[in-house]
Each structure stands twice: as structure tokens, then as C-alpha cells.
Amino acid sequence: MAELDEIKQTTVSGLVFRRDHSHRRSSTLLPWITAKQDLRYLRGVVKKIVRAADLREELSFTSFRHGGFTEGADSDLTDAELRAAGRHRSSRQLPTYAKRTRKQLISGTKKRREERTKAAGLSE
């Protein structure tokens, strides 16, 4: 518990995966980004976590990203909210990450039906 409390004191908001050690130039736990500004090292770290947790081998860093976006879309988050959560500037990437699900289809159908019945003054 003390470790979690300590992490809360130095948390940089928005980062899911952070280094578990200090950087030579910063006492704040930084994200795992290499000199080329990519996440190659983090991919290996996530693979180790997946294996240690005895999860399906095909899971990867991007699997969790896709899953989070799809979960957000299922929760009726707006495009702006999804973009903010994923740090995207444009909504063009959203269809790549937020997969269509049956829940989204049903939710959309219900919303359209509610609008039609309201507009026509009908009851369901």
C-alpha cells in the first residue's frame, strides 16, 4: 500500500505505463519512450507482463489500446472524450481503435427510435 501511495505523489496524469525506475535526468517516473520517440521498449515490457500473468500470447500493447477505445465507445463516450483519452488530435483514428460492437449497434438503434417517437409524439 505504501508503494501505491508513493506513486500517487509523483504520478504524471494520463500515462498508463511508466518506468519502474527513475530516469538519470528526472526523479519523476517517465513514460517508456526511446530516443526515436517510439514505444518499442514498452512493447517488450508488456509482452513480459502478458507472459507473467499467463494471458493469451497474442495480446500486445496495442491490444490493450484497442480494448480501451472499444470499451469507451461501448460506454457512449463522445468522439471528443475518446480523442482526449487516447491523446489523438483528430477523430480519423477512432474507427481504427474503437471496434464496432453489438452493444453500440443496439444503443444507436434505441437512440434513433427514441428520437423518432419523441418527434412524432408517440409512446413506446
UniProtKB/TrEMBL annotation:
Region described as Disordered: spans on this chain? 84-124
Q: Where is the composition biased (Basic residues)?
A: 99-111
Top-level taxon of origin: Bacteria
- InterPro entries in the cross-refs: DNA_brk_join_enz (IPR011010), Integrase-like_cat_sf (IPR013762)
Answer yes or no on keyword Transmembrane. no
Alphabetically ordered keywords of this record: DNA recombination
| One of the GO biological process terms | DNA recombination
GO molecular function list: DNA binding
Name of this protein: Tyrosine-type recombinase/integrase
